[in-house]
Amino acid sequence: MRGVNFAHSEVLQVYRGLLVAAVALTACGPEPESCEEAGRVDPKLQLGTGFEDFAHIEDGDALGIDFGEQGGWHVWMAFRTSGMVVGHGGGFGPPDPEGPTITCRLLNGEGEEVAAGEHSRFPIDGDAQQGEVLGVQMRVSAEVNVAIDGGGDNPATGSLTLEADAVDSCGAEASSIRSVSLDLSN
Q1: What is the domain-level CATH number for residue 122?
Q2: What pTM was estimated for this model as a whole?
Q3: Is residue 56 part of a domain?
Q4: Per-residue pLDDT tens digits for 106-140
Q5: Cα 96 off chain centre by
Q6: Which residues contact residue 131 at a Cβ distance below 8 angstroms, ignoring those fewer than 6 apart?
Q7: Please, are residues 182 and 65 in contact by the beta-carbon 8 Å criterion?
Q8: How remote is the C-alpha of 135 from its chain's centroid?
Q9: Structural domain total, the chain
């Protein structure tokens, strides 16, 4: 009877099998049913904030900022989609070629990017009718970090433009824009 140790060739066979499976999964395109199902609804993207719960963002809202464990400030973004393929597994699963890519940017009045974040090719909770992802970090730029910490002018004061774009594996696209500000009272 063998113990727990595998022979070298058996370990290589296991790794080869895992590699073949990973390549096969990433090479697969979206299932036709997924694209058809998502295509029944116009693609939409709703902007929100939140790590545990979704809080819808309206024009004029102030976004709270949090200090990260590794240093630096960020905004916890959240998104809701409809009419888009959400991928398999939901939540913070492994990368999924069918998961959507959602990018967000915060621009000041001069059009300078003062924060940015991305949720790329990971599945999100839900289905083509409504998907939701919470806890996407939109990292604040170095200049804003320095200003918040008391050094220099803050390029992220006043009215800011929050832009977000989403694209799924079938090519469906949605975007959303809000006029917001940052709540720097943390």
Answers
A1: 2.60.40.2550
A2: 0.76
A3: yes
A4: 998 889 898 999 988 777 888 888 889 898 999 98
A5: 13
A6: 80, 81, 82, 84, 86, 100, 124, 125
A7: yes
A8: 8
A9: 1
Torsion angle, alpha carbons of 119, 63, 145, 118, to 10: 10
Residue 81 falls inside a structural domain:
yes
Give the CA distances from residue 16 to residues 12, 13, 20, 23, 162, in Å, rounded to whole numbers and listed in that order: 6, 5, 6, 11, 45
* Alpha-carbon distances of 76 from 16, 21, 139, 155, 177, rounded to whole Å: 39, 34, 9, 20, 17
Q: Please report where in the chains the tokens 């140790």 appear, as a residue.
A: 5
State the greatest distance between any 2 C-alpha atoms of the chain, in Å, as a whole number: 72
CB atoms under 10 Å from CB of 176, counted, come to 17
Taking the C-alpha atoms of residue 122 and residue 98, their distance in angstroms, rounded to an integer, is 8
Range of the domain at 135: 32-183
Residue 65 lies in a domain: yes
